[in-house]
Amino acid sequence: MSAPVSRGILGTGIEEGLLLKPVTYQWAMDLYDQAVANTWFPNEVQLGEDLADFERMSADERQALTFLMSYFNPNELLVNKALAFGVYPYVNAAECHLYLAKQMWEEANHCMSFEYVLETFPIDREAAYASHVTVPSMAAKEEFEVRFIRRMTEQTLDITTIEGKQDFVRNLIAYNVILEGIWFYSGFMVALSFRQRNLLRNFGSLIDWIVRDESLHLKFGINLVLTVLEENPEISTEEFAAEIKQMILDAVEMEEAYNRDLLPSGILGLNADYINTYVKYLADRRLDELGFGPHYGVANPAKWMAAANDTLQLVNFFESINTSYEVNARQG
């Protein structure tokens, strides 16, 4: 009996995607293997060693860290809802399901990592939890995501239609390219900037591992978007392309407002203008990866973040930087 013929990456049949081999989308299988190799746990980082640094940081610096935790913590869980309700049910390749299952575990692990930060540092958890609702710029970003994720959770897409396929791509752009690929990376840069000044070095290691996971999430999402567009060329109208690009440009404006609230007075070596230049650089990277070409034309102001951003060179990045940690790393 011959193997069933693949009908593309999109599909909702329960009986589809039950056989892993032959693998149709090798990029998904490769990302799953890398994700498994990257498995880590928060308590492997000795955050308590950073307490002395936290105590000698300025009030503005501690507030910035609290602000980041306020944003990251609920949004890691929000991503899981997007994956569970808006992506997993509509993808029929077994290798994609494997990767998405690992990604959902990683998002949970990231949430627990930020809880570990809140438990270790003397941060007012109640105030941190409240900020994502009470700070208008943070709430605006969350409402943008919730608007798309609500469509995922409360509506069933008919992905046999052009509109349904376009909705699937819209949702991917909202949570993967914008939330994970721009907004999260903006926060990662701020979090890692402390280590540039020899502060919170163990916290920086925790963020490194989260960035490593998120780089794969981004790579998977970009590949998924491009595969859907390649297999369904009828959805790639000029109007749809313009809409997707405008979503990303609108997201940059929301992030700019958020960063002005994050650092209203600036801290040593970092202010809102610096971060927002980095945001525009990130947006240009994502636009380019989606085939639009850059919009802002700005240089990367944080050259030290280059390795974390280079989603096109992930394998080289991991081989040169992270093999000492990888689970079951090959011995040369």
Automatic annotation (TrEMBL):
Its cofactor is Fe cation. It is an enzyme of class 1 (oxidoreductase). Keywords: Deoxyribonucleotide synthesis, Iron, Membrane, Metal-binding, Oxidoreductase, Transmembrane, Transmembrane helix. It comes from the Bacteria. Gene3D superfamilies: Ribonucleotide Reductase, subunit A (1.10.620.20). Its EC number is 1.17.4.1. The chain crosses the membrane at residues 172-194. The keyword Nucleotidyltransferase does not apply. The keyword Lipid metabolism does not apply. It catalyses: a 2'-deoxyribonucleoside 5'-diphosphate + [thioredoxin]-disulfide + H2O = a ribonucleoside 5'-diphosphate + [thioredoxin]-dithiol. Binds 2 iron ions per subunit. InterPro entries: Ferritin-like_SF, RNR-like, RNR_small, RNR_small_fam. Belongs to the ribonucleoside diphosphate reductase small chain family. Tetramer of two alpha and two beta subunits. Provides the precursors necessary for DNA synthesis. Catalyzes the biosynthesis of deoxyribonucleotides from the corresponding ribonucleotides. This is Ribonucleoside-diphosphate reductase subunit beta. The lineage of its organism: Bacteria, Bacillati, Actinomycetota, Actinomycetes, Propionibacteriales.
